[in-house]
Amino acid sequence: NLPDEVTIYEVGPRDGLQNEKTVVPVEVKAEFVTRLAAAGLKVIETTSFVHPEWVPQLADAEDLLKAVHRDNQVRYPVLVPNERGLDRALELGCTEIAIFGSATETFAQRNLNRSLKTQFDMFAPVVRRARENGLRVRAYVSMCFGDPWEGPVPIAQVVDVGSRLLDLGCAELSLGDTIGVATAGHVGALLDAFPRERPLAVHFHDTYGQALANVVEALRHGITVIDASAGGIGGCPYAKSATGNLATEDLVWLLDGLGIRHGVDLHALAATSHWLAGRLGRPSPSAVVRALTKE
Ligand code: HMG
Ligand code: MG
Question: Per the database record, which ranges form the Pyruvate carboxyltransferase domain (predicted)?
Fold first, then answer.
């Protein structure tokens, strides 16, 4: 039994562009976000309020949010690790944030400069104050399936970290396959390990070409929020071997075939990714974008 409708949570401007070697001009980013909204995406993770030296690609977060004409039918969440990041997001009138925890010790150290344990101390006041200000908070948990330094990650450890993040007061938990090593059986086992009522989303990277198979498994488990990145751009600067996210176009092609509603205009989206690929100076890694935009 598959759902009738899903929400595509677009992460291209954030997860995609955070990993580009060149810094994309803010006007190009603003046009990218605007075109994604015009293509029908209703949730667009726009940027990050992290330390600018940690992710210089997104150091223009303030300028970008000022440059984007926010459509009131569209949600524009931003990544926030700590209270300093929250202050910056509040200043810009953001109404939705995402915190990002790690399921492993090594990645907590490398991505957050915190231990597995102390990451919660950093996030707790962020979630509390965000909610006091009426913001919706999503939580990510990274390295849910494998970690480049620690190898396979025990399911119980992921459920423990994810549950603690949700219990801080988050509305949704996105399970991140940060390095793209998951396969469908592992996805099913992890989803089964969470209590049924937990509001879960999935975030796959396509390193081993398994992202779509993993999505089908998640749909079979009743998941209705799926993260994807236009054109399949992305990765993570603090996780070697992380390649692009699942491409939004590949996801839309799958959903169309399954008759699952998503609200996105595939051709407008593929044209946007084709345009961005020109700006980035290399072809889109998405098979669907390449098939639809052959000249
Ligand atoms: P830290 O060095 O421990 O920070 O970094 P600190 O709290 O010790 O502060 C040091 C200085 O940084 C202070 O300035 C702060 O004000 C400043 P000083 O007083 O020395 O002048 N500072 C900030 N400035 C601007 N904005 C801020 C901020 N915070 C502190 N937000 C920190 C800790 C968390 C900040 C750092 O580790 C960081 O920025 N990490 C983010 C790394 C990142 O963005 N990684 C990529 C995203 S995660 C991902 O991609 C995975 C995901 O896609 C899911 C998946 O794929 O699985 C979500
Ligand atoms: Mg990611």
Answer: 6-270
**85 touches ligand 1 (CB under 6 Å):** yes
The model's pTM: 0.97
Is the distance from CB of 265 to CB of 49 less than 8 angstroms? no
The pLDDT value recorded for residue 295 is 63
- pLDDT, one tens digit per residue, over 150-198 is 999 999 999 999 999 999 999 999 999 999 999 999 999 999 999 999 9
Distance 176 CA to ligand 2 centre (A): 6
Mutate to test the pocket of ligand 1, among 17, 50, 141, 246 (most ligand atoms within 8 A of CB): 50
The per-residue pLDDT of the chain, averaged, comes to 95
Ligand 1: residue whose CA is nearest its atom 30: 51
Instruction: Using the atom order of ligand 1, give the atom closest to the CA of residue 205.
Output: 56
Distance 187 CA to ligand 2 centre (A): 16
Distance 47 CA to ligand 1 centre (A): 13
Residue 236 banded pLDDT, cuts 50, 70, 90: low
Distance CA 133, CA 211 (A): 36
| ipTM of the complex model | 0.98
Nearest CA to ligand 1 atom 49: 236
